[in-house]
Amino acid sequence: MTFLIGQKSPFLSITGGKTVEQEYETIDLREIFFMLKNNLLAIVASTIVCAIVGFLVTNFLITPQYQASATMIVNSQQSQTSTNLTNDMLTTAKNLVATYGIIVKSDTVLDQVIEELGLDMTYEQLADRVSVSAVDSTQVMQISVQDENPAEAKAIVGKIVEIAPDVIQEAVEAGSVKVISDARVGDAPVSPNKTMNTAIAGLLGLVASVGFIFLKEMLNNTFKTDDDIQKHLGFTVLGVIPQVEVED
Prior knowledge:
Blueprint: E1 2-4, E2 10-15, E3 18-23, E4 26-28, H1 29-38, H2 40-60, E5 66-76, H3 77-81, H4 87-104, H5 107-117, H6 123-129, E6 130-134, E7 140-147, H7 150-172, E8 175-185, H8 194-219, H9 226-233
Antiparallel strand pairs: 1-4, 2-3, 5-7, 5-8, 6-7
Helix pairs in contact: 2-8, 5-7
């Protein structure tokens, strides 16, 4: 199998009454295979070096982030007063999760958290660390905070779930939230992902090395074998002078 990529191999076309000579160069898949095979050591070395660099950068230059989480259940006003829950009641409660999530991340809640905990950060900085989501599309709402200090992340989540229910009930007046799981923080950091970063760095090294080899080969217009002379110039090779090493 061959590819048409560049120059040589004249091809004639007629455009507007004029004959235009277009040149293409064919590359055999075998040439690509041998080109990669001859540079296999460089490709492997580049991949390994980039992977090691990615691991070292991830391990020593990126600050680990810990995540603390707590869960609250969202209740609509109807579900609080009725003993038989219907699908409409559950759907209403699920839809309230998005509304309550906005309230949880509002300055009304987070500014109070910053003030009571004495945090050295702005509202925008704290809001970027807080995430609110529904657990498996249910009426359970999970509040998570990421911070380089696990104790601080846990304290922030704990203070949010302490302040948020009263603020939500006062703002919405149509339902409530109750804490079903207190703030907990994992023992291991959630980011950065050392394995993924190392794999991505190695893959980038692989792609970069292969791309450089292809570019170098495309820009190399020297003749390496007698077949290149016949292929590119169309001349028949009558003889080859071998390279002989002569000892003194």
